[in-house]
């Protein structure tokens, strides 16, 4: 039997980020068996899943997706996207399907399109809750929580993606998938090494992020019976053992073990060999396990209003922690006095000091100024705005101590209150056991 091999071209880390055009052409010249690209993730928070929309510009998405449709047409291979429309919800999948129809119509082309939907009905999921296991740190969830979710998706693995490819479609649009599934599916179908397929997919999920010059985007993954080779397509870009091995640290709690539907990848015995501008990897192992898929769900947590004030007084900058604590205490007292026992959450984020990592921040330097971002979340817009307006004069004039003169700070825009609209939260960090990998997934094939 001949040695199986599969050549997968990854244009970028996600549709909407762009790529080096010459690098894409270089990749097409190597005759890929598949062009595959990720469409999104949870990186930008729960609002996109909650609303079922993409974070990327429609015009940008259409331009890039049209270019990839043309590239796949010229290469004579299928084109696939996972987690379409950032969140992978059905409405986002349909959004990209509409764009695909437009692109094909404008180009005067036809195509067979496979569409994989990954949505879960809250009521049905509640009936299957005995098959659900919480992961570490998962919130408490009950049927009422599920009913509150505007969108719930299950992350598809290789098996669901393989089913879509087996339709013979020229374009495959997937709802929420694991980032690796769309890259590992075809190599596994073609008999390539299981561990290599999953490992190479993890390395290549973000395109040239596993290489130097990551903004060039385009890489090639060549899978075979023993391992895989990753090669950047841009002339200036180089893959090194360090850049390739380091990608197992990316969005992964364990750099050695990667959990996926149906098992886990173990790279403890992997070897990385530089071959010119490429890296050859062998030794990764796949270990099968009972089949589970991860669940993601989002619901409205409340209505948001935001204010921003700029603090430049050196003393206030130096003692900003005490100022924020004092302001919060006084704000809560004022809200209670004037509004009674209302439900709300008020948070002050110190933009320029620990706003990202909070108490985990290792840095010690103090900036010249700090922006205080006050965010209010309440059950309804009127309450959120009323609380924000109560906080307004404190942000502008609150002193560090009662004895000192009243300070004045700066609002960078007027009015300072900005309506944020519905604020969403993730509510699922669980896995669902499936008897059949296709249970609950829906595959449709359309001819355009």
Description:
This protein has helices at residues 21-28, 47-51, 58-75, 90-107, 122-127, 143-148, 158-165, 181-189, 194-204, 241-246, 314-318, 320-339, 381-397, and strands at residues 5-10, 34-40, 79-86, 112-117, 132-134, 151-154, 171-174, 219-224, 227-232, 257-260, 263-266, 271-275, 278-282, 285-288, 292-311, 345-351, 370-378, 418-426, 430-433, 442-447. The protein has 448 residues and is α+β, with helices and mostly antiparallel strands. It folds into two domains: 5-118 and 155-289, no CATH class; 301-424, Alpha-Beta Plaits (2-Layer Sandwich), CATH 3.30.70. Strands 12-13-9-8-1-2-3-7-4-20 form a ten-stranded mixed sheet, with helices on both faces. Strands 5, 6, 15, 16, 17, 18 and 19 form a seven-stranded antiparallel sheet that branches. This is Acyclic terpene utilisation N-terminal domain-containing protein.
Biggest sheet: strands, sense, closure? 10 strands, mixed
Can you tell me the number of structural domains? 2
Radius of gyration: 25 Å
How much helix is in the residues? Answer: 25-40%
Organism: Jannaschia helgolandensis
Protein name: Acyclic terpene utilisation N-terminal domain-containing protein
Pfam family, one: AtuA
């Amino acid at each position: 039997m001949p040695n199986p091999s599969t050549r997968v071209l990854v244009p970028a880390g996600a549709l909407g980020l762009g790529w080096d055009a010459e690098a894409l052409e270089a990749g097409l010249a190597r005759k890929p068996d598949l062009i595959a690209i990720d469409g999104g993730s949870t990186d930008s928070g729960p609002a996109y899943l909650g609303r079922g929309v993409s974070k990327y510009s429609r015009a940008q998405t259409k331009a890039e997706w049209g270019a990839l449709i043309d590239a796949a047409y010229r290469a004579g291979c299928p084109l696939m996207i996972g987690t379409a429309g950032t969140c992978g919800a059905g409405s986002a999948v349909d959004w990209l399907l509409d764009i695909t129809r437009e692109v094909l119509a404008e180009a005067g082309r036809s195509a067979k399109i496979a569409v994989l939907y990954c949505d879960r009905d809250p009521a049905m999921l509640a009936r299957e809750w005995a098959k659900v296991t919480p992961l570490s740190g998962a919130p408490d969830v009950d049927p009422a929580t599920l009913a509150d979710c505007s969108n719930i998706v299950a992350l598809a693995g290789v098996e669901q993606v393989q089913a879509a490819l087996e339709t013979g479609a020229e374009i495959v649009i997937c709802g929420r998938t694991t980032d690796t599934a769309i890259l590992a599916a075809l190599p596994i179908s073609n008999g390539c090494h299981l561990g290599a397929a999953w490992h190479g997919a993890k390395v290549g999920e973000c395109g040239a992020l596993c290489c130097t010059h990551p903004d060039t985007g385009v890489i090639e993954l060549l899978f075979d019976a023993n391992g895989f080779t990753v090669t950047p397509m841009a002339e200036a870009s180089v893959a090194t053992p360090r850049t390739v091995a380091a990608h197992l640290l990316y969005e992964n709690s364990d750099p050695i073990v990667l959990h996926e539907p149906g098992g886990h990848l173990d790279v403890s015995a992997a070897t990385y060999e530089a071959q010119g501008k490429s890296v050859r990897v062998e030794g990764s192992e796949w270990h099968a396990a009972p089949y589970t898929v991860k669940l993601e769900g989002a619901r409205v947590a409340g209505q948001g209003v935001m204010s921003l004030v700029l603090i430049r007084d050196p003393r206030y900058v130096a003692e900003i922690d005490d100022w924020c604590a004092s302001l919060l205490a006084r704000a809560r007292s004022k809200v209670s006095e004037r509004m009674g026992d209302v439900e709300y959450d008020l948070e002050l984020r110190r933009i320029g000091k620990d706003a990202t990592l909070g108490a985990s921040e290792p840095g010690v330097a103090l900036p010249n100024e700090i922006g205080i971002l006050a965010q209010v979340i309440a059950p309804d817009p009127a309450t959120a705005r009323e609380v924000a307006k109560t906080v307004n004069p404190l942000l502008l004039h609150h002193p560090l101590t009662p004895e000192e003169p009243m300070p004045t700070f700066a609002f960078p825009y007027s009015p300072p209150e900005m309506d944020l609209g519905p604020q969403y939260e993730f509510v699922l960090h669980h896995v669902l056991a499936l008897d059949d990998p296709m249970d609950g997934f829906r595959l449709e094939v359309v001819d355009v």
